[in-house]
Design brief:
The protein has 3 domains: 63 residues, no CATH class; 103 residues, 3-Layer(aba) Sandwich (Malonyl-Coenzyme A Acyl Carrier Protein, domain 2); 40 residues, no CATH class. Helices cover 53% and strands 5% of the residues. It contains 13 helices and 2 strands. A two-stranded parallel sheet has the order 1-2. It is rod-shaped. It starts with a helix and ends with a helix.
Length: 230
């Protein structure tokens, strides 16, 4: 028993004398001879080991104050910049069924919108502006998809003219059914050449689609060429 008590006492004394901070400070004092400081690599290593992380460990538990921190202090989290809702815009395009006789009447006095109606009329072969503004309702119902899409795009020209920078603040665009084509057009993902390829799917059969008519491999090849995910 006496032997074990003596060994425990020696062990405690050794830990107190050889603890890292005390050992480093003792070496620091012994390294100063005649007012000169030892600048050897070992000296710098001991100095840095005795000071690194001490400022952060003062508030730690008493038994952990002697330990040096293995990592630098964590940087404070930064919040992302706040975006003001008034500085952004989200557009939602209407779909089939939103048409009515007289729509687009207030857009005809805007040159860019009027040119858009004229261009659409040249492409489809009938007067889109007249059908939208004057009807008759039966004809508008039959040609509502073209009428709704062109009128939606013409409304963008009015927003561009009346509110400078309005379209530049758009962060997202979506649409109900047919309105998706308006959103894709705004995002420059849908163009006239690509639109002219869609009627080819109708020629495959009444009510048919590429996926149900063609074999799956051919359908994927077609979709890849059009950059459309089916």
């Amino acid at each position: 028993m006496i032997y074990f008590k003596e060994m425990r006492h020696i062990n405690r004394m050794f830990c107190k004398i050889c603890s890292p901070p005390k050992f480093a400070r003792a070496c620091s004092k012994s390294s100063q001879v005649n007012g000169k400081t030892d600048e050897s690599p070992l000296r710098r290593l001991l100095d840095e080991a005795s000071t690194y992380g001490e400022a952060e460990t003062q508030a730690a538990e008493p038994e952990m104050r002697w330990a040096t921190q293995p990592y630098a202090a964590r940087a404070s989290p930064t919040e992302p910049p706040r975006v003001q809702p008034r500085d952004t815009a989200v557009l939602l395009f209407p779909g089939q069924g939103s048409q009515y006789v007289g729509m687009g009447r207030r857009l005809m006095d805007i040159p860019a919108a009027k040119r858009l109606y004229e261009l659409a009329s040249t492409v489809v072969g009938w007067d889109v502006g007249r059908v939208c503004v004057e009807g008759p309702e039966e004809e508008l119902e039959r040609r509502c998809q073209t009428a709704v899409l062109v009128t939606s795009l013409a409304a963008l020209e009015r927003a561009r003219e009346e509110r400078a920078g309005a379209l530049e603040r758009v962060r997202a665009a979506a649409g109900f059914s047919l309105g998706e084509f308006g959103a894709l057009t705004l995002a420059a993902l849908y163009s006239r050449p690509r639109g002219e390829q869609f009627p080819l799917t109708l020629a495959l059969g009444p009510g048919s689609t590429l996926r149900s008519t063609l074999r799956q491999v051919n359908a994927r090849a077609w979709d890849s060429s059009l950059q459309i995910d089916v």
